[in-house]
Amino acid sequence: MPRRTPSLLACLAIAAGGLIAGCGSDDDEGAGTSSPPPASAPEATGPDTGSTGGEVKVTMKDIEYVPKAITAKVGQKIVWENTDGEIPHTVTATDGADFDSGNMTSGETFEYTPTKAGKIDYVCTIHANQKGSVTVQ
User: Fold this and answer.
1) What sign does the CA torsion over 136, 53, 63, 109 have?
2) Is residue 40, in this structure, part of any structural domain at all?
3) Distance between CA atoms of 79 and 121, rounded to whole angstroms?
4) 118 falls within a domain
5) Which helix (H) or strand (E) segment is 19 a member of?
6) What would the pLDDT profile of 82-118 be if each residue is shown by its tens digit?
7) Cα separation of 60 and 124, whole Å?
8) What is the number of structural domains in the chain?
9) Is 28 domain-assigned?
């Protein structure tokens, strides 16, 4: 059997060490302790919506609807809330639906669930320049 020199053994040890160290990759970092992938975010209904999951929210503040234009799905509840201090507001459909919240004081809410696709325009009957719209998909 041929005699192995220390330099050959040293080279083999270095090579073996490199193989062992190279067995993992950056992709495997934390293997065995990895957490599941993050859950998907709820489906967005567009950049102009106040959607939070199962319902779309609109607030009344500074004599405006915030946001002014929203997107909702057929059967998805829309909730308007008056957060405008002592200023009363209404949510009254002018086109595409038939609803009227009546006068709403601070903290009161009004809910509407669309039953068909289309566009709904609405206004505050107290403040004629306060207008909003819903695109129902």
Assistant:
1) positive
2) no
3) 15
4) yes
5) helix 6-21
6) 999 999 999 999 999 999 999 999 999 999 999 999 9
7) 10
8) 1
9) no
